[in-house]
């Protein structure tokens, strides 16, 4: 029998320990929940802190080229209570989300020059410093494109979008030196090629920790489709899906480890034409924002004349009511499970959802945690 030299034993076991450590230190997927502070006081007691890695507090306004808390009294209370959730989850990160659909009209002005970008970045970082928060999320809807009616936008927005993140990262780094605490910088982005056509996401993502894909609100003004489908449907041709968005961002040069899949905690409702048979792919008369998933699951799925269907190709559920001609598109546990499997298979950073209050019974959040673990 050969005697193995003790040094070889040491090398072998050192390598084994190293590999084991690498396996155990594999980063867990992030679960980012947007919480609507714009509505006033947040019911923090209903938030399951252990089921989240991040809370993005929506929203902080942009006024006079600065990040501004427009409801200081409520925001201050909300920040204090959200920070208390760290007693239940010490790793929980609380970020401010700046902008959103209604408060993006002044981004273009705020980041137009080096001077304005620096002032904007300082004001944003001052908020997280004052309230001892963990980072900044930017939700600019949308650089270089129309968002809400009246929004200011310019051809230069794409370049300034990148420079904005550079300025924010520089200010966060300064704060980090003072506090010895790491701060995160994230962004919510449109889940379409159009957003990529008006930005340089490869360059911008160098300064960003997570790119939150808003892979929802895929709906048409003409036909009833899915608003948050994982894959393209074969019933109709829209060109939108989470899979299409992910691949487009990868093609644009964004690292897969920074991409976060969006999940909708709410539905979208459509009223169909008189001769509609099943809803999906047929002509619509009108559309509107729908109920949250807790209401959909408890009150509408196979109830009140609604029948549940699944588009297996798209991995998306929908409801149709032949009496009222109402069609509803949404995410459920089945579609969420498919999205989470996709995230794990692709090696994406994790998932995010809009918004927490839309599913107070946590049906979807529980499915996210189960599927990602």
Question: How would you describe this structure to a colleague?
Answer:
It is a single chain. This protein has 373 residues and is an alpha/beta fold. The termini are far apart. 45% of the residues are buried. The chain is globular. The protein is 34% helix and 23% strand. The longest helix is centred in the middle third of the chain and has 23 residues, at 157-179. Helix 4 packs across helix 5.
How is the secondary structure organized here?
Layout: H1 6-24, E1 30-36, E2 54-63, E3 66-68, H2 72-84, E4 93-99, H3 107-110, H4 114-130, E5 135-139, H5 157-179, E6 184-190, H6 193-197, H7 201-204, E7 210-214, H8 242-251, E8 259-264, E9 266-272, E10 284-292, H9 293-300, E11 306-311, E12 316-321, E13 326-329, H10 333-346, E14 350-354, H11 363-372
Parallel strand pairs: 1-2, 1-14, 2-4, 4-5, 5-6, 6-7, 7-8, 8-14
Antiparallel strand pairs: 2-3, 9-10, 9-13, 11-12, 12-13
Helix pairs in contact: 4-5, 10-11
The CATH architecture can be given as: Alpha-Beta Barrel
Number of helices: 11
Strand content: 15-25%
Average pLDDT confidence is 94
Give the N-terminus to C-terminus distance in angstroms. 45 Å
* Residue share in helix: 25-40%
CATH level-four homologous superfamily name: Glycosidases
Widest sheet: strand order? 1-2-4-5-6-7-8-14
Q: Poorly predicted ranges (pLDDT <50, ≥5 residues)?
A: 1-25
What is the top-level CATH class? Alpha Beta
- Biggest sheet: strands, sense, closure? 8 strands, parallel, barrel
């Amino acid at each position: 029998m050969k005697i193995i030299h003790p040094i070889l034993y040491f090398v072998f076991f050192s390598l084994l320990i190293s590999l084991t450590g690498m396996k155990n230190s594999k980063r867990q997927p992030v679960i980012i929940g947007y919480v609507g502070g714009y509505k006033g006081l947040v019911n923090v007691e209903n938030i399951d802190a252990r089921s989240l890695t991040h809370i993005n507090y929506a929203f902080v306004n942009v006024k006079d080229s600065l990040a501004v808390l427009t409801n200081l009294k409520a925001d201050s209370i909300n920040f204090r209570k959200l920070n208390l959730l760290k007693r239940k989850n010490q790793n929980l990160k609380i970020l401010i989300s700046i902008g959103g659909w209604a408060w993006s009209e002044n981004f273009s002005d705020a980041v137009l020059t080096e001077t304005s970008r620096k002032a904007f970045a300082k004001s944003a970082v001052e908020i997280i410093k004052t309230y001892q928060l963990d980072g900044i999320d930017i939700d600019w809807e949308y650089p270089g494109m129309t968002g809400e009616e009246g929004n200011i936008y310019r051809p230069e927005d794409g370049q300034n979008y990148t420079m904005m993140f550079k300025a924010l990262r520089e200010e966060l780094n300064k704060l980090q030196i003072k506090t010895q605490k790491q701060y995160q910088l994230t962004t919510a982005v449109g889940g379409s090629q159009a957003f990529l056509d008006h930005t340089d996401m490869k360059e911008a993502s160098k300064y960003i920790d997570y790119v939150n894909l808003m892979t929802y609100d895929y709906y048409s003004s003409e036909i009833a489709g899915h608003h948050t489908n994982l894959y393209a449907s074969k019933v109709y041709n829209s060109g939108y899906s989470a899979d299409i968005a992910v691949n487009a961002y990868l093609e644009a040069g964004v690292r897969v480890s920074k991409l976060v899949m969006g999940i909708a905690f709410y539905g979208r409702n459509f009223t169909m034409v008189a001769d509609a048979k099943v809803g999906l792919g047929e002509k619509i008369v009108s559309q509107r924002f729908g109920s949250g998933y807790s209401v959909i699951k408890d009150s509408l799925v196979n109830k009140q004349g609604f029948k549940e269907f699944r588009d297996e190709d798209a991995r998306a559920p929908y409801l149709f009511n032949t009496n009222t001609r109402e069609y509803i598109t949404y995410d459920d546990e089945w579609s969420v499970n498919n999205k989470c499997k996709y995230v794990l298979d692709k090696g994406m950073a994790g998932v995010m959802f809009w918004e927490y209050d839309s599913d107070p019974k946590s049906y979807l959040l529980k499915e996210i945690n189960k599927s990602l673990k």
